[in-house]
Amino acid sequence: MDGYSLTEKMRGARRRFRLSATEQALFYELVAICNSEGWQDTFRCSNMELCYALGGIDVKTLIRARLKLINAKLIYYKSAKSKKDVGMYSFDDNFISGIIPPQTPVKTPPQTPVKTPNLIKTKIETKSKKERGKEKFLPPSILEVKNYFMDEKSITAEEAQYRASQFYDFYDSKNWMVGKNKMSNWKSAATRSLAWEDKRKKAYTHPAASYKPDYTQKIDERF
User: Fold this and answer.
1) In which region does residue 44 sit, left (phi positive, over 0), alpha (psi from -120 to 50) or beta (all else)?
2) Number of H helices, E strands in the chain
3) 88 near 43, Cβ under 8 Å?
4) Taking burial as the number of CB atoms within 10 A of a residue's CB, which of 58, 60, 136, 146 is the most buried?
5) Nearest-CA neighbor of 89 among 105, 65, 106?
6) pLDDT in tens, 50-84
7) CA-based angle 197:202:204, to the nearest 5?
8) Shortest CA distance to 16 belongs to which of 67, 54, 69?
9) Is the pTM of this model over 0.70?
10) What was the pLDDT predicted at 155?
């Protein structure tokens, strides 16, 4: 499985199934995510992350596009078991019957203990003390995020609730990781999220730009 073979598969299916631009964009976004994950047989991605990547489409549109790709046998999908979990995707035909190829365990040779000089040992102990002194990151609640958004911007409570839910669901699905590192300051990330949303709104010139999201919509990650 690689990007070239998946692209050829899409070319053969888009006319036969009359796939829309949104459906094709969803397919190529999933290919890009699979590539970033090292072409694993399965990978996870939340509805909220995909909605952001596709220009702010709503969840219902995403679900319809995903179902069309599934019917075209371009992707395979398994919904999450709970709201806190996210769905699983695959391009592998074996995923249909729930058969996932077993991963070959990597045998690591036993390591011989190495005597460490006292100087290095002292540096390691000092570093460990500094790390223990750091405060442990505690994820915020949706209410804390909502109140922070309302303090930072003059927006309604409904819009603040909607943005807070998006922000919370996105980072909660990633276990509050920023890249490969654990988040250290959620308020900084929230400020960047507000700035990104404002920039996206200004740059969005699609004919349907007059669309306003329903801030009271409750997004269910199980679909």
Assistant:
1) beta
2) 8, 5
3) yes
4) 146
5) 65
6) 998 888 899 899 999 999 999 998 999 988 887 77
7) 90
8) 69
9) no
10) 73
Closest to 220 in 3D by CA, of 101, 103, 81, 91? 81
Residue written as token pair 């299916």: 13
Amino acid at 202: K
| CA dist., res. 81 & res. 150, Å (int) | 32
Dist. CA 27–CA 204, nearest whole Å = 22
Q: What angle do CA 25, 27, 31 make, to 5 degrees?
A: 115
Ramachandran bin of 179, using left for φ above 0, alpha for ψ from -120 to 50, beta for the remaining angles:
left
Give the chain's length. Answer: 223
pLDDT tens per residue across span 190-204: 888 878 877 777 766
| β partners of residue 182 | 177
DSSP symbol at 106 = P
Place of tokens 């796939």: 19
